[in-house]
Every structure is written in structure tokens, then in C-alpha cells.
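Task: complex structure prediction.
Instruction: return C-alpha cells for all chains below.
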Amino acid sequence: MVATEKPGNYQVVGTRPIRHDGTDKVTGRAGYGADYQAAGMLFGRVLRSPHAHARIKSIDTSKAEALEGVRGVITNADFPQPDDSQVEIGEGATTSARWMLDNVLAGEKVLYTGHAVAAVAATDPHIAEDALDLIEVEYEVLEPVMDVREAMDENAPVLHDFLRTEQIASAFGPGDMVGQKPTNVAKYLEFKAGDADAGFEEADVVVEREFTTTMAHQGYIEPHNGSAFYNRDGHITIWSSTQGAFGVRDMTAGLLQVPVSQVTCEPVEIGGGFGGKIGIYLEPLAALLSKQTGKPVKFTMTRQAVLEATGPTSGTYMRVKVGAKNDGTLTAAHVYLVFEAGAYPGSPMGAGAMCALAPYQVPNAHVEGYDVVLNKPKVAAYRAPGAPASEYAVESVMDEVAQQLELDPMDFRLKNAAVEGSRRPDGAVYGVIGNEEVMEVVKSSDHYRSELQGENRGRGVAMGFWFNVGMESSAYASVQADGTVSLSLGSADIGGTRASIAMQLAETLGISAEDVKPQVVDTDSVGYTMVTGGSRTTFAGGWAAYESAMDIRRQMEERAAAIWDVDRDQVSYSDGGVNGPADDDGNARSMTFKELAGQLAGSGGMIQGRADVNSMEAGPAFAGHIVDVEVDPETGKVDILRYTAVQDAGTAIHPSYVEGQIQGGVAQGVGMALTEEYFYAPDGRLLNSSLLDYRMPTALDLPMIETHIVEVPNPGHPYGVRGVGEVPIVPPAPAIANAIADAIGLRMRDLPMSPRAMLEELLPDEG
Amino acid sequence: MQALKVVRPTTIAEAIEQLNEGGDGARPLAGGTDVIVIARARVRDIDVLVDVKQIPELTAIEWDPDSGLTIGAATPCYELYGNADVVQNYPAIIDSATLIGGTGIQGRASFGGNLCNSSPSGDTIPTQIVLEGVANIAGPNGERSVPVEDFCTGPGRNVLGQGEFVVSISFPAPDASGGARFLRFIPRNEMDIAVCNAASAVKLDGDTVRWARVSIGAVAPTPLLVQGAADALVGKPLTDETIEAAAEASKDAATPIDDMRGSIKQRKHLSAVLTRRTLQQAARRARGEDIPSVGGH
Amino acid sequence: MVATDKPAYRVIGSRPVRPDGADKVTGRARYGADVLLPGMLYGRVLRSPHAHARIVRIDTSKAEALDGVRAVASWDDLPPKNWDELPNLGEGAAETRWMARNVFASDKALYKGHAIAAVCATDPHIAEDALGLIEVEYEVLPPLLDVREAMDPNAPLLHDDLYTTDLSGGGTSDEPTNIGKHLEFRSGDIEAGFEEADIVVDREFETSMAHQGYLEPHNGTAMWSEDGELTVWNSSQGPFVVREQLHMLLDLPLSKVKVVPMEIGGGFGGKIPVYMEPMAAILSKKTGRPVKMIMTRQEVLEATGPTSGTWVRAKIGATNDGRIVAAEIELAFEAGAFPGSPFSAGALCALGPYDIENQRVEGWDVCVNKPKVAAYRAPGAPATAFAVESVLDELAELLERDPIDLRLQNAAREGTRLSDGTPLPVVGNIEVMERVQGSEHYRSELQGENRGRGVAMGYWRNGGMETSAHAAINQDGTINLVVGTVDIGGLRATHSMQLAEALGLEYDDIRPQVVDTSAVGRSSVTGGSRSTFAAGWAMHELAQDLRTQLEARAAQIWGVERDEVSYGDDAVVRGPEAEDGSERSVSFKELAGQLYGSGGMIQARADVSPTTVGPAYAGHVVDVEVDPETGKVDILRYTAVQDVGKAIHPSYVEGQLQGGALQGIGMALTEEYFYDDDGVMRNSSLLDYRMPTALDTPMIDAVLVEVANPGHPYGVRGVGEVPIVPPLAAITNAIHAATGVRMQKLPASPRAVLNELLSEET
Amino acid sequence: MTDRMIVSATINGEPLEFLADQRDSLLEALRERIGLTGTKEGCNDGNCGACSVLMDGRLVNSCLVMAAEVEGADVTTVEGLATEDGLIPLQQAFLEEAALQCGICTPGFLVASKALLDANPNPTEYEARYWLAGNLCRCTGYDKIIRAVLKAAEA
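Output:
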């Protein structure tokens, strides 16, 4: 597959049609998971652990069950008990069914505050809530492990007796069991390129720094929900706002130990995910309670539960050491990453390790990573999982190295920029990438070239990388007699992917975007489609749309040949229609798509196209951000004055939606940088589990975010698409940190760079 | 459904007051199988439905071997054929109760409602007439009793005045030498309006008819008590000839109309056929033979 | 494709529980009337009290002013457009202009119950109240109720723009008329044929309009979104056909209309046209809110399409040795208010079971002031078969022949030309007759007074038409199957069974579902005895597509050539021996588990429009007892024999035979449209429109004959329609055997039979 | 004009209060106010049985019951037949005997058949046909329905 040679010469790609689901979403008619209603529906609530670490000695649900209106109470023991085999959960990651179940409802131990212990279904939500108080749980409280470095200590309390350290060779590959003793260190990863020690020897300047970040939540406004109906024939239907209906289907089937064909996941709209709505929390509870009660059961989470008990991204401890020659050439780097996995193994440490040095050619590199369990919620994917932390550390150090070498930070980066053919420390070799192009656009941008005036103001830049993923998408397209095409998709549409996928189908057929009617259908109605996440949906979904359109084109050629009674190979599809040989009178034979569509019914029936694509390759994405800040030295508060995000999108299918992805990613990155954190008490209680105290940026906390879309087409995609959703969250934290350093000379190495943290640094020690 | 209210009195006095207040627009609601349909079809102006089923007297069944049977006007058919006293002593009541509508209708429909609906084809009315039923009426001017054969005055019309309603229907105790039977003719085997229906009751002295009553329905503006049929039988032996004479009397008494449910010719003919058949079977019951009603009852 | 010569199927012929079964016995299955949407309004329809009237004025102002009323719609709200397009509705074509005028009366109300205006309000009771506030001024015209009177050139006209179209090539009439269409089939020399006959029976027959009587009233819920997208939820026999009608009536592109097929509570042909859907759509457009409309039963009976009342003359001549040498059939069918009766199908089916050299069949499609007829199970055939089978019974009696012997002697077989000249393919006509004759029922002795036995045959051509489907393999080796044909009586099961058979899988491995018009390719209606037939072809194609892709994948995994790999009927994919001599094979389930890691999952799609339809024949035997005093006919015993080609799910096939037979029994004995002189239907309730209850029929023995259709992968013929054809004549023939009376007008109600019996006496 | 009232009843074992119009039938209240759409409307005048429910254990046509009348009553609809253990034998028999085609009359037949078997656990064919004569079916010819009911009675 080669990229089409004339980017920008598209009819549909690159335009900005209104999304097909738009009206429903501005009129309130779009149905989200919590909007599910059914007659006789029961309401579910979850009893959650007050302790961060405790052994469950007993659970007595009898009083709750006796409460009038309560129809069912379940605990971990009510599920079929799984073996420890691994199951795939999307984005290539795997987990064990045992861990998944124990996270859904705690098994022998509760491992974090908010860990689900029991679930109740009642005729009324208030009754279900009342019933929670009647469940008696006897806990043996254990010492919690709250610090990731302490958790690595061999004397630390161990969360899982059976856990042994596994050494892995790549982010998603299998590993070897190397540990002998019970430990909290689940995984260890090491990449080596060249000879790091020798490289540091070569360096004129070496900077080594330590960094920490806290857990941060995706913060989608829609709390998790899950409703299920267990029919009398054993068939389970699930309504859930999820990034991946097929994943929910497969995981729920796995936990209930039924065939996947016995589960249907209905596509309801989803109110934000950012990686956090791939895993399951409530769906199996609803399904099991529905099985027990014979009624549909709906669960919705409280915001407190969302923050305490769904997956934020990891808090981290990191050490980065970079060496460079006086001419600015990088000689060596050492990156040491420790990631909080939360209660069960599976942090994005591997991705963080892959991305850490990705924008650069580093001849000698050593990257180490640790995946460590501790008494916090099991982390989930969060937009470019792992990269914001590791690149925050690296980009901060790069900035300091440039500063010490007295080089323009962009010149320094450009000098060392990874290009096509460069090999990353994890071994991957780049194809066509837009890294240098992004850096050049940053450097030449009006923002970067403008003068920043005023006291306590500073400018920072940082780069970001995300590898993007492909994976499976399917599409089914049906030609209608009026020349429109109905397109069935399996990808949840979080931010306009109905439109961006439909546009690629339209482009391929030479029809308008409005003539394609995309819809997201349930898991029974379309082929297997992976999650909306990993910056893959427009890429892989678009590819599937392209292939299904090509399937239609082939059939239309055949049909036109039949209608004209000419040879099949004399007919070709181009420019939105079929063209054949001239007729006996010498007139060209051609039909537009619409004309032929109108003749299908009478000439052998309508036509459908279908495609399944499964690409393990995707076009990596690079971003470069520029930020101007002003720091109030008396309060430590950082104001964002101006923000510019530059990014290689490959091809921007729908530029508005690409801009939206970039701007949304920046805002989340700003939140991570400045205000968002998981604030734990020493006993493991989360102290800020509300949207008041978990401070996501408001409209007043951000300026307009300028975007520059660079288009270096991905040769591995029919329209040159790269994923765009994730990389924009990567640069903001280091860009802001670098801007703060520029403004007041203070290097902040712990996130968030909150006013309180800033003041801690700014104010003299009182001793 | 026209706009209306449902009120649910618990005493006869309360019901009288509500019916009286409601005037022409107030109607008692018993089983509802007719009045709800009428209100829904906006056939008649109804703005208050007085649900009389909360009044204990309206759903009571009282049986005494000497004084006979009193059934609350709103007692559903289902209760009647579930009641051993009624089953044993008034098989003709069961004939009617098991013929009305289908099982679901019988879960609600009542003898009192059927009477007050006063349809010419009401399937309980001929039975009530030949069993010498009396409608016990309560109203603003006190109580009164009206023999069932005098109750209906025209299609959908009856003797009830403003504020009045039927509380119960009383039947004298059965005679050991008596028997009664109700039959109707419909094109289907259930769920239909009678093309013609008939009930006969006889009391026998050996082969001689001591007393008889014949009533036919759906062949005149109201169900008819056919005096001529009784006259053809009483004091005479029960033979094919006397039965035929009674049947002819019914045929003569019938003044049916032609409509989608039946023709004049058909209805007059059936008046005779059903009179004959009910008389024959009433006599067999009088002689102690067990002739089941429909549905195995 | 030739019929399979190995009848040893694994799945086909078994009787699994239908996939939608649990939903349907727990009340969870969602039918059209079950749609509940936030902010939903309720619509009601004002209908004409007159059978024929000019609409002088409609004043909706008082209704609009009623608190809670949100909009009123009438004819003027249909978009102005060219109404001359001809949509194909699956079981015959209809002109859009007639369709539009049936949705809302334009300048005239043409039957009692004709829709005049529709109202929507926040509460159903309010909508109903509002109807009483709409003022309509009518100029009442004399109604035309008799089909032969309507044919009179001097009869008043229903339409001033209706001209007769001659389907036999005679062009179009010059003057407006009440006759929509005319046709004539001729073969041989009819005059010479009757000359040759030793005996000729010439009789006239009449049938009344009869309704399909589905238990679920018509419904339609519409949401016309602000972006111009119309979504309609309803119970219909074909969402695509509903979409096409809305596209034409509302002048909307097809792609702007999405029809979501809810479960459907019976159709029998009557749920192909739209009634409430366009009204709900217009009201939704006016209000910006979803609007739900449900018909009352009275509206269903008065204003949806029953089948035609008919007049049929059958004249048949035979030689003394029983050879039928000539047949002449004339038929006039009531179309109702607009042209489009099933008269041509009736004409074609009249003589379908017989090989008659000289014949002439002539038919007329005639408008009268009654509801526009719709398809009803083998549309047209019951009426004409009633006539022909009655005359044959009389001929057999006159010739002193066993009625089946006479029929066997003249039976149509492969190659026999139908009245329209088309030759029959392989059919089971003779096999059915022989099975009837050899049946225990037919050979048993019928004892008792006033009892009689009757037999009759029936023929129906069956349909093919378009079916589309797609399927996706799951990683555990199950398959999700998506279809666009609605499941009225077990189609999900028969689709799944045929796909399972085609792939060597188990029934439970297939998870079928019916989806909306935007999620599957165009599929025609569930009707015309086409659905299981066409489904078989679609499943066959899907299976071929899946097999091909699975073979390719296995070849890729093994690193061998594509053509070295084959998918076996045991669902095992086999390749060439490995280098070490071991066998390369992988089961479907194993391979399904490897798809994801080897290039992705696999989907298939199929779109078929098969024409290799297998005609169906049925022969019924019935014993009746007639009460000579009341004229009431009781069915004592009933046997229905039918060639089904191949019974995919025998229980469901039996169910079709039993259901069809009972509808025929209703037509024969109790069901009729009873009009008064003003054209008002007097029996528009399920109390007085007397469909048989459980107490009106015995068990119905269904005998399945399987003469495989060579034009189908599994030999399937359609089964749904032909069982309604024989009952009418079988029963009247039995009544004749019991009483000596020949009922030539249906229904043979107690009133009618009694009338005959009493006139015989006098 | 709408005139609303609050009705308290037990529906399928659950105590329930609902808002209904004074002129709502039980059928309308079940379907449009409560959302229990399993009970079907076929004729709305008591002649088809599709809306059959049990009211205080007794078989009734819910179209011929005013919503106001169910105050304090115990109503069972088709949705209330299956138990926590699954389908009742009657429902299972309907599936296995192919006793439904379009399924619209099925809820009414099931409720009526349940009432029959509660009252008469071993009905004859005639008794079953008589009891179910108030329930119309247009698809099956009744054959398989009657067989299913008799089979469930044996179970």
C-alpha cells in the first residue's frame, strides 16, 4: 500500500462536513449508557472498601438481601472462578482473568480504597444504596503501600503473594519469569542501544535529574455505567458507554465463562474515554445480577467511585541522564522509569520506555522500566499512556542540556532529530515520519519567533512522540438505490469518527460525505472491531472503509460490464463512476455512482462491500508545543499566556476534528502539568475524590490553543492517515516546565506544578 | 375514551349519592366489559364511572335452601361457576355464566351488569327471567325490586331512574322437580353475540308440565318472556307436539330485525329451534340428568 | 444448482427453538407499538364516516387550539410532487398517487374510514378528543359497493383520472372508468374444447372481502430530526419497502429515511403498505418530536387492506372419460377505493393444478367504495380456486368419479403450461394428490348423519426477490449473522439453520439478528412465500464467501498454495501434507481462534435475487357436520397435504400449513365484510368479524410432501401461502356431501347455509 | 383535558406507584405509563385476549379494566411469569412446540394458559380450547398452541 501521490487533491478528505450524529447530540436525543431505561429495571450499587489494604475475613449479605426491594446481592464468590490465563483487553495489552475479576469485585483482599466488595440490585436506586449499609464486611486491615519506590523495597508489604517479577523485552511482548520471591515489582524492562557508559564518557555535558508525577485521571465527564439483561435463553445484552464494544463483550463473556456469541454489546454513545473506558467495572456485575434476578439491571458510578476506583494513569518516579557534546550532538542517555500499576500489574511503563527518547537519535541509550503494584486503583490507559511522564522527564533534561550548551532549544532538537531510518532504543526503525517537519514548523512559527515581554514570563518548548496503533477494524457498506451508502461500523464514535471514516469511504467512491450514512452498530451486526483508542480509529476504520469501498468498486465494475454487455476488464471505476469502452456509435460509456446505484436493483440486486483490516503498522506521530507562561512569584500560580501545538497528522481527514483532538490533548496535558493530582492520605484514602478538588482546567484556565497541522502522509495508509489523538497530551508538561524555568529560573521536576508545589520551591525553607 | 373520572364508593349510600350527583353522565362500573367499551367508543356521554365493586353487597353470593339465591349485581361470572351452591342448584345460571365472552371476560362480567346493559341479546337475561329473578334496586328514593322480565324497556334502556342502580338479583329456591336450560346460537363456538338465545324452565309432575317459563333473546327490542310458550305446555304432558307448540309460540313472539348478526328469517327459525332444545334439556335436568354447560362446567 | 441428492442433512429438518423465542414468551420482544421515546407525542386519525363523499372544507382550528394538541396534518401536508412513479412493493406494483390518496383523502373520501386528518398531542386521550373538534364538510355521494355494478359503463366514477390498463397488450382506455386493469389469457381453442366436452358445468361464485386479521394493529412511530433525517419504527413485513414508500410519499431521498423493523405481530400481506408511518412522519416534522400512532381495531378493519371480494364464473367441460377439455374463467375483483386487486394472481392460479389444453381466463380489477385491498396470503388464489374446485367437485359427481381420481387424471406436471403460458418446473402436484388419496383420512369411513367430506387442491406460484445478509466470524467459532428480512414466524431460525448446514456448523453456532435499513443490504418483504427460499440462497452465498476466505487464510498460515486448501462439509479445512508427512487440517473453530493473529477476522456478505422459484401445491381433506336446524358447520377433521420442497424446520412448516388452513376455514365459514347500503361496515370489531377461535377447529393434520425444488441449494419451496387456497372449496364440497347444498357464495355462515336449507325445504 | 391520579398496586410482585390518567385502562397504564409493553393490544374491546393479565389471580382483559380499579390489586403480566429459575414449563413448551409464529398473541395466551393450569392442572383438549377461546391467534391454527398447553400440563 502506498499513499496516494497527490495529497490535498481530495474531494472529501480535508473538508469539514458536519458530523452525522451531530443533531442528536445537540438536541439531547443521543442515547448514552446511563440513559438506558427498561420496564422493571433494577438499579445497582456497589459497596466499596474503606481500606487501602485489607484482608476480607467475611462478608455477610443476609441483612441486605432481606431489605424490602433488594433483589440480589453478589460478591466475588458468585462468579465462576477463573484460572490465571491471560486475556486480551485491547491496545494489545493483556491481563489475567483472575486479576480482572478481582478488580471487578475483590477476592481475598481489598487492595485500594474504593475497591468494589459487593454489588446490590434493588427496585429503587435509594434502596440499593440503603442496602450497602446492611452488608457486613469483616476486614483485617493491612499496612498499605503508597509509594512506588517503597513498594519496590524487599521489606515492603506484598500485595500479591504469588507475584514474581517478569522480565519483558518490549512493551507488548511476552516475558520471562525472573523473580524468585514474592514482590511488588511485576515487570522489568530494559532496552539497550550502543554503549551508554561509553557515550557518557564522550559527552561534554551530562545532566542527570530525578522526576515524579502523580496519578492523574482521564476525567471524562460521563461516569462509568453498565446495564445488562440476561435473557432466559442465556443471551446477555449489555448497554455500556465504552471505547470498545467488542472488548466489553469478550471480557464479560470471559468473566461469566460463556461463549462470546452469547453476549451482545449495544452501541450507546460514550461521554469521553481517553483510554479509561476500555476496561470493565460494572458490566459483569449487571450481567450477573440480571441472571440472578431475571430483570435488566443498570449501574452507574458516582464521581467519587470514578476517581477512586477506575483507572487513572500511573504516578511515576523517573531518573533521566543525558550526555551531549559541545556541538549539541547527543552521545548517550539513560532513562530509569518506575511506574505505579495500582493494585494489579499492568502500568504503561513499556510504552513510556518506548517513547522516552523517541524524537531523537541517541547513539548510546539505556532505558529501564519497572511496573510496580501498590495500594492504589489499577491504572488504565490514558491518552498516549506512559509517554507524558517519560517525555516530561526527558524533555526537561533536554531543555537543561540545551541551556547549558547555550543552544536554541529547537536547534538542539533538530540537530538530534530522529528521521526516516533512525532506530529507536527499543529497536524499531522509523519509516516516513514528520519529526523534523514538526520541529521546523515550531521553529519558524510566529509564536516561536515572537518576542515575549514582561516580568516572570517565560517560553518553553517540548516535543512529543506516540507510536500509534493499527489493529482490527471492520466495515460493512451497503449501496442504496438513491446512490447513497449505508456504512456500519463497530467503533464507538467519541469525537467524530463516524464522519472521518465515512469521509474516507466517500473519497474512495467519489461521492459526497453526506451521501454516506455511517452508524455504529452492535457487536452482532458488524465484524470484529477493536477499541476506539490508541489513535487508531480514523486510521484503521478509514482503511476498512477504503477497502469496503474498493469491494463496492469492483462489484460495480462487474455490474456495469454486465449492463453494457462488455468485458469485465474493459470497465474501470474512477472519478465517482464507472467508465467503459465506447459503444458502437463511438460514444463513451459511463455511469455515475448514483446512476449505477439506481440500476442495481433491476440488474441483479444491490451491492454491499465489506472489509476487515488488521494492521500491525501505523504511522507514528510527532508533536511540538510552544507555551508562554507567567508565574506569580508570590503565589506560585502559573498562567498560560499563549499556546501553540504543532503536529504531524499524516493527512487530516477532517481538519476541525484533528484540531479538536490536539486542543483537547493540550488541555489535559496542561491539567496534568499544573493542577491535577491524586492526593492520598498516609492510610491510603484519596482525599480529593471530587471534581472540586481534583482540579481539571476550566475554560478560564486556558487561552485559545493555536494548532498547526503538518501533513507528512503515512505511506502505510491509503489516505496517509496517522493517528492524531494521543500525542498532543505528551509535550504540555515539559513545555510548561521549561517555560517556568525560562520565566523564573526554577526547574520543576515534580508534577503537578501546582501553586503549592511552586511556593514550596520559591519560599525559603523555614527550617 | 371520553374524559371521565372513576370513583370507588364503599357503601350503597355513597354510590347513590355519586350516581345522583353525576346525573345522566354517571354510570355504575361493575365488570366494565360493556360500559368501558361504550365510554371508549363515545357512544354515550359518560363522565363518571362509579365502581361499585368496593361495596360488599355488590359482590356477595348468598344461598339459602328456603329463600333461594341472591347474587351481588357485580359478582363476576367466574365467581358464580366457582360457587358450589350455584353450580348445584342453578345449572342454568352456569349455562349463561360460562357462555358470556371468553374466560377473560368472565373474570369481570356480571349478571347485574349484563342486565343493566339491557342489550336485547344479553346472554344472562333469559336465564334470569325463567328463574324468576328479581332485580333489587337502590336509589335516592329508597329500595325497590323489579322482576327481571319487566326490567328492560328497550335496547340499552331499562327502568332505572336517576341515582338508581341494581344491588343484587334474587332467585327463588329451586324446585326438586324443576329444571332449566339456557342456550344461544352463534356462528362461532365462543366469543360472539347471540344471533338468538333462549332459556326454558319447567317443573314436572311425572310427564306433565306443572309450570313453565320460556324466554328468548335477540329477537325483539328486549328479551322476551314468552307467555304463549308456557301456555302451550302447562298442564299438558311434555311431548314432541307440546314442545313444538311452545317453539312455534316463541317463533310467533319473535319480532327480530335484519342486521349483520342475523336475518329475520334465521332468527325466527332459531327462536323455535332453541326453544325446543332448551325445553328438552330443561326437562332432562328436571328428571335429574346431568347436562353440562359449556367448557366442561 | 441442482437439488442436493443427499437428503442427509445435519441441521435442516431438525426442530430447534427459535433464537427470538425467549424474548417472545417473556413479553420482552419489542413490537412497533412498544416504542417509547422521551417527549413522544401520540397521534390519532380522523376518518370519513361516509363511503363516498366530496370533501368541501376541513377546519382544524378548534382542534389545534385544544390544550396539549401539537399539530394537525391532512392531504395538503403531503409534499406536492409527481405522483406517477411506480414503486415495486414486493408483492405487486402500486402507483404512488393512489398510495398518497389512500394515506390521506385528497378531494374525496372514497370509503368509510378513509383518513381525513391526523392529530398529535401530548397524551393519547387528548389526541382523541381533538378529533371531535375537527370540522369537515362533506358532500355525500352515492357509494358504489358491488363489483359488477361498478363495471357498468354508466356507473358513477370514483376517480376521474383512472383509465383501464389492459395487461394483455390492449393499451389504455380512452375514457375514465372504475376498471383499473383487465387481462385475458387464452390457449388452445376454447370453443372447440367445449364442443368436444360431453359435460359442461358453468357456475358463478362470490366471496366477501376478508381481512388478514393479524392480531397486532398497524403502528408507526416517526422522528423527523432537525437535520432532515427521518427515522421510523414500525411493524411491517419489509422495512426497505416501507422506506421506499416513505421516500416517494414524502419526497425524501432514500438515505434520509431509516426504518427500524420492530417485531411484527402478523402480516399475511397486509403489512406491506404504509398507513400510519407517513402521517407520523409529517406530524413529527411539524412538532420536532417523536410521534407514535397506533390503529384501533376498527380502523384496521375499515381502513387497511383486506383481500378482494370477488365474483368468479367458472365453466369447465369434460369428456365422459374424465378428460377436461376446456375451461373458461371470468373474474372481477374488488380493488377497493384504488386500483390494484390481486386479480391477475387469481387468474393465474385458477387452473394451476390442471393440464387443460383449451382455456380462456379473463379478469377485471375494479374500484368500489371499500378500503383499498392489500395482499393476503396467496392473494387472489383462494377465490378462483374456490370456483374451479367447486365445479370440479360437481363434475366428478356427475361423472361418478372419485374427486381425486378426476384431478389426477388432469393433473399439471413438469412442463405443463400455466394459463399465462409459462411451463411448470419440477412440481409435486401429483405427489400431493396421491398422498391425499392414500391418506388414512381420505380412506377412512365417515359415519353419522349430516356429515360430509370434501377435498380440494390449491396452487401458488411463490416468489423469489431480493435478500441480503452479512456475517462475521467470532473468535470462538460462532457467527454473527445479520439479515434484513423481518421474522414473522421463525425466519431467524430458518436462516441460521441453512447457514449452519452450509458451513457444517451447529445451529447454536449462529447468532442471527434482523437490523434496520441502514445496517444491511436491501431485502424485500417477508411475504410471497419467498423468505426462507431466498434466505437459503443468501446463506449459501455467504457460506461460499466464508469458505473461500477461510481457505485462503489457512493457506497463508500454512504457507501453502491457495488451491491446495479446501473447506470440507465437516467444517474442517484441509491442506496438503506437511513436509514431515503429517496431515494439515484445522477445524472451523480452531481457525476462527487464529484469525485475529493472522490478518484479521473474516466477514462475508451476500445479496441474492433468485428466480428459480419452486411452485407449491396443496391438497386438503375436510370432514364437516352441518346442523340442519341452524345451518352451522362444524369441522370434525382436517388434513392438509402440501409439497414443501424441503422442510427446513418442520414444526414451522407445519405451523404455516395449520395457520393457512384455519384462515381459509374462516374465509369459508364465518368471516365477511358486512356493508350496509350506505357503505358502512357493520361488523368492524373482532367480536363481529368472526375469526375462528381455538374452539372452532380441531387439530389440523399437516402432511409434508418433499419434492425438492431443483432451483434451490436445499430444495426449498415457499410454504406460507398455498395452504389458504384449498379450504374454501374443500369445505363447501364437504357441506355439499353432508347436505346436498352447494354453497356458491362465501362465507357459508349459518345464516347462509340455513337459508339454503330452508329454501330447499320449501 | 387530562386528569391524573396516583395508583398503588403490586405489578409482577413489585409494589409500584404510578401516575395514570383517569381514563387510562390498565392496558394503557401498563404500556404507556409503566413501560411494561409485554401486554399487547389487539382490539381494545375485549375480543382478542392479547392484553390478558391476571388481576388478583383472575384472568382479565386489561383493556376492560380501568387503571383506577387496580388500586391495591395484584397484577401479573407476561413479564411476571418467568421466575428467578428461568422460564416456566408453559413458556418452555411454547418454544419447543413451535406454538408461536409472529408472537403478538403469545403473551395473552401464556397468561390465559397459566390461569387455566392454575385452575385446572390437567385439562382435556376441549377444556383447553374452551378456556383459550377468548384468545385469538391468526398464525398457528391453534394446533401447536393447544399441544404446548397440554404438554406443559403434563410437565
